[in-house]
Amino acid sequence: MRILLVLGLAGAVILALWPVPVLTVRSTNPARLLWGQQVRAPIPLRLEYTHSVERTPVAELYRADAQGLRLLRMEFVSQGAGLPSAGYVREGDRLVLKTDRLLNNLALRVSAVARPRLTVGRQTFDLLALAGDGGTVVLAVRPLPRLAVLLGVLY
User: Which of 3, 24, 56, 103 has the fewest beta carbons under 10 Å from its own?
Assistant: First the structure.
């Protein structure tokens, strides 16, 4: 009987500490969690901003899944520093780069010029309001213990 109890408790501890993928949006200065959610199914993300040199709109579409963050598509209307110079197609008035690039994380320098907005599922974040001009926001899919996720203790 004791063996079953010990095995049951050991199983519960293992299950509680077993890592699960969590999409996190963090600011780096000050270091804090802005938003987090367990990745049970793929989560769509859309990053929209104004290109700092060209002053034209740019949209990047990502998907967070258990493997990480994937850049799927980039839409822009003109070429400039930091934008693709090849591999894109024209769709109406937009240039579109289609890809499937797995990223460890996505670090974004926030600026008042770019005014970045991040849409995660149905929720939109004004990154300038959250991180401030010159701040940095990092998006990543990280393994966190299941118990931390259940208790809402994301870090």
Answer: 3
CB 4 within 8 A of CB 122: no
pLDDT digits (tens, 9 = 90+) for 115-131: 999 999 889 999 999 89
Structural contact between residues 126 and 108, judged by C-beta atoms closer than 8 angstroms = no
Burial of 76 by CB count in 10 Å (0-12 exposed, 13-18 middle, 19+ buried)? buried
Distance CA 66, CA 15 (A): 18
- Helix (H) or strand (E) holding 9, with range, is helix 2-17
CA 130 vs. chain centroid, Å, equals 15
105 residue type, one letter: N
Which of these, 89, 17, 97, 90, lies nearest to 61 by C-alpha position? 97
Ranges of each domain in the chain = 2-151
Phi-psi sector, 128: left (phi>0), alpha (psi -120 to 50), beta: alpha
pTM over the 0.90 mark: no
Burial label, 23 (beta-carbon count in 10 A; 0-12, 13-18, 19+): buried
